[in-house]
Design brief:
Blueprint lengths: L13 E7 L5 E7 L4 H12 L6 E5 L2 E3 L17 E6 L3 E6 L6 E6 L3 H16 L1 H6 L2
Parallel strand pairs: 1-5
Antiparallel strand pairs: 1-2, 3-4, 3-5, 6-7
InterPro entries: Rad60/SUMO-like_dom (IPR022617), Ubiquitin-like_dom (IPR000626), Ubiquitin-like_domsf (IPR029071)
Pfam families: Rad60-SLD
Protein name: Ubiquitin-2 like Rad60 SUMO-like-domain-containing protein
Length: 136
């Protein structure tokens, strides 16, 4: 027998959570109250084409960290709650010499660099599996 605590089936409820990004778009997840938040966060990241490292989750001003393996019940999330999701901001600076004086152009590329890097990594891993298996 396992030593893991068993939850009473009568206390397990279905919870509807909305995850909202900075643009206001929401994705709704219907999960059990015993589901780990990390599972919801991973599903959200997959739908958005991002990695968990690119996302930050906040509920009522408190940060939720998916890596802590807390359940929906542990976080006191209720049916219909909305979790705010922020994405990491990646910046890129481009320097152009248009005259003897340098002109600085600043381009803010939010998430584009991270998405392209992750997709390139996945493509290289697919094309060269032996190389990736040999790496530590």
């Amino acid at each position: 027998m396992s030593d893991a605590p068993k939850t009473d089936p009568s206390t397990v409820t279905q919870v509807s959570l909305k995850l909202r990004d900075h643009t206001g778009s929401e994705i709704e997840f219907k999960v059990k109250s015993t589901t780990k938040f990390s599972k919801v966060a991973k599903a959200y990241a997959e739908k958005k084409g991002l990695t968990l490292a690119d996302l930050r989750f906040d509920f009522d001003g408190n940060r939720i960290r998916p890596e802590q393996d807390e359940t929906i019940d542990d976080l006191d999330l209720q049916d219909g709650d909305t979790i705010d999701v922020a994405t990491a901001q990646h910046m890129c600076f481009v320097y152009l010499s248009l005259s003897p004086n340098l002109q600085y152009l600043h381009f803010r590329l939010s998430n584009l660099f991270a998405i392209l890097t992750e997709r390139l990594r996945a493509t290289l891993k697919y094309l060269f599996p032996r190389y990736w298996l040999a790496r530590p």
